[in-house]
Write a structure and sequence with these properties.
single chain, about 220 residues, mainly alpha, Arc Repressor Mutant, subunit A, Four Helix Bundle (Hemerythrin (Met), subunit A), 2 domains, 3-stranded antiparallel sheet, 11 helices, 3 strands, about 5% strand
Length: about 220
């Protein structure tokens, strides 16, 4: 859980929770890939924590379905199934479309959406497609933040990590991410104009297209 979550609930995140969040963010940013074996020695050194703390963080992430422990093989990042992807997009439509439809167009979170679009443009112009993907995730996190719900923000963080794992299995990040830079710009324009219903409808179509792309390519590469 992120620090904001604990601040909102009046509690302080433990070291274990902080470590779990750092690993979760590495998944969301595409720094860890589906199926990758996680070295306790390397991660504990990188995160500057004991192996016991790291193992507790792994237990949190395992409950979230992000990593798994196999006897004699250690811990590895999960590989999402097609059923997982379908469910993730179902949840995204429920969360994001409602957040966009019901939000005030000048909600502070829209600044996060603007910043994410600028980062995506810069990454696209220099061919950094994984960074385009990271900026895209930040854009959609901004949409969820419009709902002013700590629980929805936490839920989206979890599914964003799973979704990024699915993205990472595809060989061509440009094919996956390039179309959605301009679509994000269009969504923001609709939202800022005050036509939140149109923005929500456009987002639903957008997510359907994204789901089809991921599933079509995913089914070829993972069998």
């Amino acid at each position: 859980m992120n620090a904001k979550h604990y601040a909102t609930r009046g509690a302080t995140p433990s070291l274990t929770d902080t470590v779990a969040e750092k690993i979760r963010q590495q998944l969301i940013l595409g720094h860890l890939r589906a199926g990758q074996r996680l070295s306790e020695a390397a991660l504990s050194e990188q995160l500057e924590v004991s192996r016991n703390t790291l193992r507790e963080a792994f237990r949190i992430l395992a409950k979230e379905g992000l990593v798994r422990h196999e006897p004699n093989r250690g811990v590895s990042v999960v590989v999402p199934s097609i059923a997982d992807i379908i469910d993730i997009y179902r949840v995204r439509r429920l969360i994001e479309c409602q957040a966009l439809a019901q939000a005030w167009p000048r909600h502070p979170a829209h600044k996060r959406m603007i910043q994410a679009i600028e980062e995506a443009r810069q990454a696209r112009d220099t061919g950094r497609w994984l960074d385009v993907g990271s900026a895209n995730m930040a854009f959609h996190a901004g949409i969820v933040a419009l709902a002013d719900s700590v629980r929805l923000t936490k839920m989206f963080s979890d599914i964003a990590a799973e979704l990024r794992l699915a993205f990472g299995l595809l060989d061509d990040p440009e094919y996956l991410h390039a179309p959605f830079v301009d679509k994000n710009i269009h969504l923001l324009e609709l939202f800022e104009s005050g036509d939140t219903r149109a923005a929500s409808a456009a987002l639903e179509d957008y997510l359907t297209q994204s789901e089809r792309i991921v599933l079509s390519v995913y089914s070829i590469h993972v069998s």
